[in-house]
């Protein structure tokens, strides 16, 4: 641990990267966010070949990413269900509007691929960038616009990342409690009870979370400021990658 | 030194949670704050941490007075909440300890590594936080709180949900902190794990302070205020060393 940190590989307490992924982890988070944003935009412009290039690139990043196990924070089943749902919906709408079955399937498939790239892109970004790094990048990104209040964006993002799994767990546990208590009511009543429970637990959790943030002193600007050296080489590499992403959209 | 005078506070004005509470604690010692559920222990800790302003009365923490100097008080105190889960915001142990500090400063990294080592978390530095046990999470929270360098530590039910080895480890950490001159206040309804470490005891009942003094002087009255005295105390009439 110490050798890595002394060599400057990890100064933010993030996951210890493998040799190949170290460079990715070290890269300026702002550059990574920029490339991610570019990918997000051009995913909606690119055709099948461009999308296939993006997918291949993301799989490569996934393989190089430090702590690849972290690429699976979301259950694979949930992702597949989400993708299938959107693909089916899209195919259904295309058919409804009178498209030929093959064309409808083509459009639905493209949507599925785009969503998969966006999800994979998000997972890759979080795998090669710690919450702390993302927070610092957001603070820098917002500073010209939000001024002294830019740290709030960083805190907001960190909280969002923290709250997602927490909320998912609350949703799951509320459903499980209803099933275990064998509530024999109509679907509408069960839905109301579920929403009520979720909201109550979320409200309590939010209150406690607020206290926890304040108790750790994370609600102050100093907590989100850090010296991140600007590397023109990394910015150049990021710009090149962004141009590559843009070019792939026109293939 | 912590001093509270005529402290009254409620989350709504109509129902005060604390009424006219006053006490003083010497620096460097460990005080146990006890009372039944709903007696106001957690609220008193939040006030001492500078997270709320009392509706009446004042709190003085190392010369900083609330109302008025909440921010300064917050910088001098560290609060460990009961729900460790919510206090952990980092992805890994290392990231969480360093959260809120300048990552570009090597001194911060050295301090964080030192704290991780003190808490026995060094081998887990890169471990994702969701893989930690309850005891490890509690220790991680404490390490993160200690990164701020507080001279006063406030713990809300630090032993709840911990197994026997984890309680023993945590007791050792309390001892360590005491030796380093940190003033500690432990809010708990379970006196057993902490009583022999405490120099002072505060007993709360329905928002009122019904007793302050050495633990031995209050244990006889604890039960009538909803606090179970330790079993060995009940059996032998005195605190027994070596229970833990």
Helix-strand blueprint:
The complex is a heterodimer of chains A (251) and B (244).
Chain A: H1 2-6, H2 19-26, H3 29-42, H4 48-64, H5 76-96, H6 101-128, H7 131-146, H8 150-180, H9 187-215, H10 232-248
Helix pairs in contact in A: 3-6, 3-10, 4-6, 5-6, 7-8, 8-9
Chain B: E1 2-9, E2 18-25, E3 30-35, H1 41-48, E4 56-61, E5 64-66, H2 70-76, E6 77-80, H3 84-87, H4 93-98, H5 106-118, H6 134-146, E7 152-156, H7 164-179, E8 183-187, E9 200-205, E10 208-213, H8 215-222, H9 231-236
Parallel strand pairs in B: 3-8, 3-9, 6-7, 7-8
Antiparallel strand pairs in B: 1-2, 1-4, 4-5, 9-10
Description:
The complex is a heterodimer of chains A (251) and B (244). Chain A is 74% helix and 0% strand. Chain A has 251 residues and is mostly helical. Chain A folds into two domains: 26-129 and 228-251, no CATH class; 148-219, no CATH class. In chain A, helix 3 (29-42) runs parallel beside helix 10 (232-248) and helix 7 packs across helix 8. In chain A, 29% of the residues are buried. Chain B is α/β, with parallel strands linked by helices. Chain B has a single domain (2-88, 151-236), classed as P-loop containing nucleotide triphosphate hydrolases (Rossmann fold). Chain B contains nine helices and ten strands. Chain B has helices at residues 41-48, 70-76, 84-87, 93-98, 106-118, 134-146, 164-179, 215-222, 231-236; strands at 2-9, 18-25, 30-35, 56-61, 64-66, 77-80, 152-156, 183-187, 200-205, 208-213. In chain B, helix 5 packs antiparallel against helix 6 (134-146). Chain B starts with a strand and ends in an 8-residue tail after the last helix. The mean pLDDT of chain B is 86. The chains are: A mainly alpha (251), B alpha/beta (244). Chain A binds chain B through residues 1-2, 5, 10-16, 67, 70, 130-132, 136, 158-159, 162, 165-166, 205, 208-209, 211-218, 223-229, and chain B through 46, 49, 51, 74-75, 78-81, 83, 85-87, 89-106, 109, 112-113, 122, 125-126, 128, 130, 144-145, 148.
């Amino acid at each position: 641990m110490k050798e890595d940190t002394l060599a400057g590989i990890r100064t933010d307490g993030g996951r210890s990267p493998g040799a190949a992924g170290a460079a990715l982890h070290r890269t300026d988070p702002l550059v990574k966010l920029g490339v991610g944003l570019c990918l997000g935009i051009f995913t909606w412009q690119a055709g099948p070949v461009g999308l296939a290039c993006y997918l291949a690139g993301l799989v490569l990043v996934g393989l190089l990413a430090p702590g690849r196990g972290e690429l699976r924070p979301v259950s694979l089943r949930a992702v597949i269900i989400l993708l299938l749902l959107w693909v089916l919906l899209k195919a259904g709408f295309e058919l409804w509007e009178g498209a030929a079955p093959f064309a409808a399937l083509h459009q639905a498939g493209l949507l599925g691929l785009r969503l998969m790239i966006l999800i994979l892109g998000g997972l890759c970004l979080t795998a090669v960038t710690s919450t702390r790094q993302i927070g610092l990048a957001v603070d820098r990104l917002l500073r010209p616009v939000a001024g002294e209040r830019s740290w709030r964006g960083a805190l907001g993002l960190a909280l969002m990342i923290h709250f997602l799994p927490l909320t998912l767990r609350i949703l799951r546990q509320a459903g499980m409690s209803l099933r275990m208590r064998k509530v024999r009511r109509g679907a509408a009543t069960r839905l109301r009870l579920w929403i009520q429970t979720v909201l109550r637990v979320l409200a309590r959790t939010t209150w406690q979370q607020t206290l926890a943030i304040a108790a750790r002193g994370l609600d102050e600007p100093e907590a989100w400021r850090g010296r991140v050296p600007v590397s023109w080489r990394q910015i150049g590499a990021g710009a090149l990658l962004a141009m590559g992403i843009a070019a792939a959209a026109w293939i | 030194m912590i001093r509270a005078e005529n402290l009254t506070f409620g989350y709504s004005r109509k129902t005060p949670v604390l009424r006219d509470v006053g006490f003083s604690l010497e620096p460097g010692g460990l005080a146990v704050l006890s009372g039944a559920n709903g007696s106001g222990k957690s609220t008193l800790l939040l006030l001492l941490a500078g997270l709320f302003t009392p509706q009446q009365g004042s709190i003085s923490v190392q010369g900083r007075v609330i109302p008025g100097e909440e921010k300064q008080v917050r910088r001098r105190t560290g609060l460990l909440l009961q729900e460790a889960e919510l206090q952990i915001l980092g992805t890994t142990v290392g990231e969480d300890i360093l959260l809120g500090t300048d990552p570009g400063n090597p001194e911060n990294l050295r301090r964080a590594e030192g704290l991780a080592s003190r808490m026995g978390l060094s081998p887990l530095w890169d471990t994702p936080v969701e893989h930690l046990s309850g005891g490890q999470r509690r220790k991680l929270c404490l390490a993160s709180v200690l990164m701020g360098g507080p001279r006063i530590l406030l713990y809300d039910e630090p032993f709840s949900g911990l197994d026997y080895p984890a309680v023993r480890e945590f007791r050792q950490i309390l001892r360590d902190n005491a030796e380093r001159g940190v003033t500690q206040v432990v809010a708990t309804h379970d006196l057993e794990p902490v009583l022999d470490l405490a120099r002072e005891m505060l007993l709360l009942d329905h928002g009122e302070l019904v007793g302050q003094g050495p633990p031995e002087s209050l244990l006889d009255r604890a039960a009538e205020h909803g606090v179970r005295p330790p079993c060995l105390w009940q059996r032998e009439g005195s605190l027994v060393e070596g229970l833990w």
